[in-house]
Amino acid sequence: MSTGPEPISARSARVTAAKRLARRNFRGKERLFLAEGPQAVREAAAHRTAGQPTLVEIFATPDAADRYPDIVADARRAGARVHLAGEEVIAEISTTVTPQGLVGVCRFLDTPFEDVVAARPRLVAVLAHVRDPGNAGTVLRCADAAGADAVVLTDASVDLYNPKAVRASVGSLFHLPVAVGVPVEVAVTRLREAGVRIVAADGAGADDLDTELDRGTMGGPTAWVFGNEAWGLPEETRALADAVVRVPIHGKAESLNLATAAAVCLYASARAQRTRGGCQA
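^ that's the sequence the OP posted. Answer follows.
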């Protein structure tokens, strides 16, 4: 019996099922999502969810299978079914304009919020009203790079498994715990009870990030709360925080976009926590 990829046609039920995962209602029903490109599929093959392999199956063009034999081998070792697919099949499944020839089907991997709290996190990114999937995925990537312990998407934020969010995370989705659907009031209350200081990032903040760093207030466990791309955080959400902090603008730029501001804030906390007196690991 051959152990190579199984050829598959565009009319296959597996292709139809994978294609439907571009829609949120099907993702929720099946608890499956798409991961596109070699980086995401590689990370998915190495990840496990509740003891199970996260990667369920992959679709690969002949060229991609030849170019990434290690990914195909890793997928098989993870127990995933590997399908050899023509470019027209990948185009049917993919949500990108220029597919990279590899698409994986993965199990949902979000972490229960109580598990995040129980782990006594030192640095958390809370996406409170983030609606753009590209921004959500990029903030997740920034949090991963800064060494954050978790990301929380509230019930007012975008779907974690939106294909654009998954792509924008560039594999970071598989690196750190992510809790979803948490009411912002619950997220703030439970994190504060766990000894985490709540800092809202907002252009209307009374203090700027430089002032906070000079005061030495950023060295302890911190949860940054980030808001909507266009209108920031509503007053009722800002009121929940221990501090509302703005990123200082030293030049003539009107503002920073969400992902850039999040990167600045998260790295500032990471630096403060790793200096003398901070909450080092």
